Design the sequence.
């Protein structure tokens, strides 16, 4: 192998290593997402994620059955909409006021998720974990 080829190969290896160190890939934690769901969402949306939480009857608009999000969106989980509803960028009126905005509870440690179209969206690791849990619950 000539010196120029060896230098190019080493430069390519160094560049790839640098990219992987700069942006580590961390898997979403479904178990953590479930714990967050049970703590922040289950009172309204139900332990079974079906919209039948203990507070559901007190609301003007019944909470959504979160197990049907993909089914009601042509089989595609509406990740961007879910993220925006949780963090407050897309508020929803439920019982006469907007759905509680939980973004403040889930701030920090940003991570990127890819939507079905491949579009990256930044959110906190906690919301990413919660989204992973909700994706797993789809029927």
Sequence:
């Amino acid at each position: 192998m000539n010196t120029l080829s060896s230098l190019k190969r080493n430069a390519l290896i160094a560049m790839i290593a640098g990219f992987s160190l700069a942006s580590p890939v961390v898997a979403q934690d479904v178990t953590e997402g479930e714990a967050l769901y049970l703590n922040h969402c289950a009172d309204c949306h139900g332990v079974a994620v079906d919209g039948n939480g203990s507070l559901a009857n007190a609301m003007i608009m019944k909470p959504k059955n979160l197990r049907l999000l993909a089914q009601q969106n042509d089989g595609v989980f509406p990740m961007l909409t879910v993220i925006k509803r949780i963090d407050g960028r897309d508020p929803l009126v439920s019982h006469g006021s907007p759905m509680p905005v939980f973004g403040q509870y889930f701030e920090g440690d940003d991570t990127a998720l890819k939507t079905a179209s491949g579009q990256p969206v930044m959110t906190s690791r906690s919301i990413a974990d919660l989204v992973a849990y909700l994706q797993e619950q789809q029927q």
In short: The CA atoms of residues 46 and 53 lie 4 Å apart. The chain has one domain: 26-136. The radius of gyration is 20 Å.
